[in-house]
Amino acid sequence: MMKKNYLEIIIDNLKTLIYALLIAIFIRSLFFQPFYIPSSSMENTLLIGDRIFVSKYAYGYSKHSFPFSPNIYDKRIFSKDPKYGDLVVFKTPADNRTDYIKRLIALPGDTIQFIDGDIFLNKKKISRKKINIKKKVRCGSGNFEVNSFKETLPNGISYIAVYNSSGTLQNTDLYIVPKDHYFFLGDNRDCSKDSRYLSSVGYVNKLNLVGKAKVIFFSNDTVKGSIFKIWNLGNSMRLDRFFKIL
Prior knowledge:
single chain; mainly beta; Umud Fragment, subunit A; 2 domains; four-stranded antiparallel β-sheet; 15 strands; 12% helix
């Protein structure tokens, strides 16, 4: 048997890398994609340093399901409607490129408004119960004390939302969600750029939905150390968040 020359070895290795890349793109585009949480807008549901898997098939597929969002089709295929309370990754309408993750609060045709600190969905107050814990959450480079509430949406989905205890958003205009669009909020209500800010996020078109967050597979407290500091991982890893279902 003849030995392969160096050129054949290089070609074989390149083929292996290309096949592996194609398989990775296939899985990432059609099934699950990993995402890193870089901000505190979803505390305490999601923390800076969490790494999550997002289901790409949960809502069907659009151009944003694929790397670089190729402009090859302007509709969703195998489309499925998201539900109240879903944790959704989407491309921001401002640039159709940046990935955000927020909680779905209002569906197409819904109205939503903050009145005296309460949220009214279709003129009915969203049920919320204060949780008697007071703690600090992150916001940018700082921290602030918050009041925590268990909020329950019309379909029975509950979650914890936190509000700045020293002053929070009380009143807004009435938002009317357009057809084929959705309204999102961050769980860290006073440290979240979301659908309340019409000039930067606003209503999100269904074509911009990337997928539904399913599980936290890894979490590292960036304040205590980078994952690249191998010697400190014992202190910085949040083991209680590994493989946490969302």
